[in-house]
Design brief:
With 112 residues, this protein is mainly alpha-helical. It is built from 6 helices and 2 strands; from the N terminus they run H-E-H-H-H-H-E-H. Keywords: Membrane, Transmembrane, Transmembrane helix.
Length: 112
């Protein structure tokens, strides 16, 4: 049940952010649910591999390179999901920052 709530909150946040952010386009609510699922799967399977391979540069930049990895994950999700479009890398970077901050805020208020 906790997983379904997280997917629904993430999909609502993706839809809200795309509504207010100029370079992100989501076709429908069902597309935002697919985006939330694909982002979750990419964060579970692909992100740890990228973090492992880029560990020296992440260490050298004091963890700021993880923002670049998050932007790359958003771009990869853009390539996988039809109906989800991000205009540029910097838009994806800003989208990932806003999404992660808003997820943190929502997760404070949503109880298990």
């Amino acid at each position: 049940m906790k997983l379904i709530i997280r997917i629904l909150t993430t999909s609502i946040l993706v839809l809200l952010i795309s509504h207010f952010m100029k370079g992100v386009h989501v076709a429908s609510f069902s597309t935002s649910i697919i985006v939330a699922i694909v982002l979750g799967l990419l964060n579970v399977f692909i992100k740890p591999i990228l973090v492992l391979f880029t560990l020296p540069i992440t260490f050298f930049t004091l963890g700021l390179f993880l923002l670049v990895i998050n932007g790359l994950i958003i771009i990869l999700c853009d390539n996988i999901v039809g109906g989800f479009d991000v205009d540029s890398f910097f838009t994806a970077l800003l989208f990932s920052i806003i999404l992660s901050v808003s997820q943190s805020i929502v997760n404070l208020f949503v109880k298990d």
